[in-house]
Task: inverse folding
């Protein structure tokens, strides 16, 4: 090897080796978490799990090697949303025969518990020691206690990063927001970012007063693509129409027209609630005032309206930041970075980023990997047997 | 400053451990959460505790505890749920008197046509208001009957 090769060969090898070394532990961890206690025996499921593992490990490797976060996170996130809807609906049809939630299912405690209802069960849970939800505490699919544990883990590890790395609904409006390169609606009045808080407080109080999860019963747009109560009364007709209208408007149309995650940033009460966890989570996003040239590209790009002029001047994203990495990846002066609280901002950007990406990817991939593998397995079943079930 | 940074980086590393612990010990944490908090599903959803079971051979009648749960204090109006659970077969028509308090006095009579999932209630005591709804369960049928809370 001559001196030029020695000068150029080592950095090139290291450029390839470093991301690989960072990816290997993730690959091993994901292999354990995706297979659970034992390897799936059925060949279709095993193949689906392997494909999912390769998909997740490849995306993580690309995040490590390109130093770009949002692009690969978004691929996973939108894939998760699509697979979740597909898997959930087909699962319901297989078990119940339809997407409809019958009274019998609710009385038997078979309604899967969704994280969106968490803020609304808290006050009644504290005051009455009961959970106002027609599900089960343990056992069954998505029992209350398990989902609360998952939420607690996510809140401690990621804060509102849940909304960009794990939430199986978030990928829907995020996906639609990517459709148009130049969305026609360029400006959104920032006062609308207060609406999730109004919905949160209003619905929490109504839920406490009525001892019923009122947001789920009346305002959840995702009922349109998961399950909704059997339409047996005029009230249920109105509820169903509201679900579908909200889904169409907040999750499909508005994201396409604005390029923003409008459901997640302008309506979702869980998002407002989860923002509070950003106050205690150790990771945040910071802006280096020495590098920032105030081009405001970050304000323009942020899908959840989590940077404004004031926060930009203050050198940090707002409490609503979901840590998606879009501003970090696109800042022309590389002035924005992930940050570990307590440390000097923007000084060890790569280390801080990697320290965040590890729990974020591990959480999202573990939580969502099974969903993706399940959807792939169903597709294989369709191809090999001609039936999804 | 260095100590804060040490704490920060320690907390950051702990986040990965928290994720591993969350999923690795999910069953354990879930059971621990339920026993530590002592929570249960609200009786407005599961009908409340079953206090009496009457065996009719082919089916059984399960009478739940009256539910008046409120946020701060019991509500003025609640309900009682009565289930008819199939062991072999449920009759096409059920006629049964229900004693709410177990004092030997029938408080209301249910006439339930299970073929068309329709029922009528004949109140025989002051707390009984009216039928709330009939329900087709996975293994039987149920009614919920509105009650006045005599204690309030």
Result:
């Amino acid at each position: 090897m001559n001196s030029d090769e020695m000068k150029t060969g080592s950095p090139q090898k290291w450029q390839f080796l470093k991301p690989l070394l960072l990816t290997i532990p993730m690959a091993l961890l994901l292999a354990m978490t995706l297979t659970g206690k034992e390897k799936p025996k059925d060949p279709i499921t095993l193949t689906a799990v392997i494909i999912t593992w390769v998909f997740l490990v490849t995306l993580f490797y690309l995040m490590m090697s390109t130093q770009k976060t949002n692009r690969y996170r978004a691929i996973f996130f939108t894939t998760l949303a699509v697979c979740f809807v597909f898997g959930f609906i087909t699962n319901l049809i297989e078990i119940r025969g339809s997407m409809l939630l019958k009274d019998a299912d609710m009385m038997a405690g078979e309604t899967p518990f969704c994280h969106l209802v968490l803020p609304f069960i808290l006050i009644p849970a504290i005051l009455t020691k009961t959970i106002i939800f027609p599900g089960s505490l343990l056992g069954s699919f998505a029992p209350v206690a398990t989902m609360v544990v998952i939420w607690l883990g996510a809140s401690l590890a990621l804060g509102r990063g849940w909304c960009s790395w794990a939430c199986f609904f978030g990928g829907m409006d995020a996906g639609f927001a990517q459709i148009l390169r130049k969305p026609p609606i360029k400006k959104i009045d920032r006062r609308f970012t207060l609406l999730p808080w109004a919905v949160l407080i209003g619905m929490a109080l109504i839920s406490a007063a009525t001892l019923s999860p009122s947001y789920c019963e009346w305002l959840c747009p995702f009922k349109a693509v998961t399950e909704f109560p059997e339409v047996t009364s005029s009230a249920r007709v109105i509820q169903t129409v509201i679900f579908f209208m909200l889904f169409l408007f907040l999750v499909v149309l508005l994201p396409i027209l604005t390029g923003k995650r409008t459901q997640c940033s302008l309506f979702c009460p869980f998002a407002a609630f989860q923002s509070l966890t950003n106050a205690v989570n150790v990771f945040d996003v910071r802006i280096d005032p020495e590098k920032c040239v105030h081009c405001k590209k970050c304000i323009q790009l942020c899908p959840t309206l989590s940077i404004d002029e004031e926060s930009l001047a203050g050198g940090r994203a707002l409490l609503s930041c979901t840590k998606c990495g879009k501003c970090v990846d696109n800042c022309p002066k590389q002035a924005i970075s992930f940050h570990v609280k307590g440390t000097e901002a923007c000084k060890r950007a790569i280390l801080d980023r990697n320290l965040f990406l590890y729990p974020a990817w591990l959480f999202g991939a573990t939580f969502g990997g099974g969903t993706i593998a399940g959807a792939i397995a169903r597709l294989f079943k369709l191809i090999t047997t001609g039936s999804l079930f | 400053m260095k100590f804060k940074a040490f704490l920060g980086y320690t907390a950051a590393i702990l986040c990965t451990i928290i994720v591993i612990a969350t999923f690795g010990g999910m069953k354990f944490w879930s059971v621990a959460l339920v026993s530590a908090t002592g929570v249960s599903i609200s009786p407005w959803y599961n009908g409340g505790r079953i206090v009496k079971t009457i065996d009719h051979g082919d089916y059984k009648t399960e009478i739940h505890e009256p539910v008046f749960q409120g946020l701060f204090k019991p509500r003025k109006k609640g309900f009682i749920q009565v289930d008819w659970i199939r062991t072999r077969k449920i009759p096409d028509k059920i006629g049964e008197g229900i004693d709410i308090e177990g004092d030997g006095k029938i408080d209301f009579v249910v006439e339930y046509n299970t073929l068309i999932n329709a029922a009528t209630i004949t109140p025989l005591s002051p707390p009984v208001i009216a039928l709330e709804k009939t329900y087709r369960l996975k293994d039987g049928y149920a009614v919920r009957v509105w009650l006045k809370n005599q204690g309030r």
Remarks:
- Chain A touches chain B through 57 residues (CB under 8 Å).
- Residues 89 and 256 of chain A are 24 Å apart (CA to CA).
- The longest helix of chain A spans residues 349-385.
- DSSP finds 17 helices and five strands in chain A.
